[in-house]
Design a protein that fits this description.
mainly alpha, single chain, 210 residues, globular, 10 helices
Length: 210
């Protein structure tokens, strides 16, 4: 991959990562509920899911996902169910006592937050099909593919970590402004609606045969 191709891919990565989606919603939700340092574990999980998607495409399994209605549907409906579960959890989240921030903020287990982020990205079959269509455009077939996929993976992960840090940090700052249980309840239910909306959009995703 030459420098011109990489720069074009870099721009594409920024555009893709900045586009609001389930990952951005999850990062903001974690920042809101746990603060930046704890909530950022979700972003790390998102990157593990992203790396899995890239590995699937690099291994050629993405072509099977693009042509198999059953495989596509199984992953899609798992993703829908998981997003609805997150919506339910967010809807039922109890308001926090903000009189003492360190005591009022719940403690999320890092592994559970990483798993949450991983499942959100790993259960999005459209992302794999999208990568299957986009990534080959930036590959030089005369050069070793493994090295190029490693560059692609590193670029996407670094950019997404930066963007998700912004989303998580933004929501964590909002946390400090919330004092009344009513404000927190409204925001929690707003995020629940966003998760449910992401699930609804995923139901409309259809497989495009390669």
């Amino acid at each position: 991959m030459n420098i011109e191709t990489w720069l074009a891919f870099l721009v594409a990565c920024w555009i893709i990562s900045l586009s609001p989606g389930a990952g951005a919603i999850a990062s903001m939700s974690s920042g809101l509920n746990y603060g930046f340092l704890r909530g950022y574990w979700t972003a790390l999980g998102l990157q593990l899911g992203l790396l899995l998607q890239i590995a699937v495409v690099a291994a050629g399994v993405g072509a099977l996902l693009a042509t198999s209605e059953l495989a596509f549907s199984l992953i899609k409906w798992f993703g829908v169910g998981y997003l609805l579960y997150l919506a339910w959890r967010q809807w039922r989240a109890a308001p926090m006592d903000m009189s003492t921030e360190s005591l009022g903020r719940p403690v999320g287990r890092p592994l559970s937050l990483v798993l949450r982020g991983f499942l959100i990205n790993a259960s999005n079959p459209k992302a794999v099909v999208f990568m299957l269509a986009v990534l080959p455009q930036f590959l030089d077939l005369t050069q070793p593919l493994l090295t190029q996929y490693l560059v692609i993976a590193a670029t996407m992960v670094v950019i997404d970590l930066i963007v998700m840090a912004g989303y998580t940090g933004l929501a964590a700052r909002v946390l400090r402004l919330l004092r009344s249980p009513r404000q927190q309840k409204i925001l929690n239910r707003s995020f629940a609606g966003l998760f449910a909306g992401a699930a609804g959009l995923l139901t409309f995703v259809r497989r495009t045969a390669a």
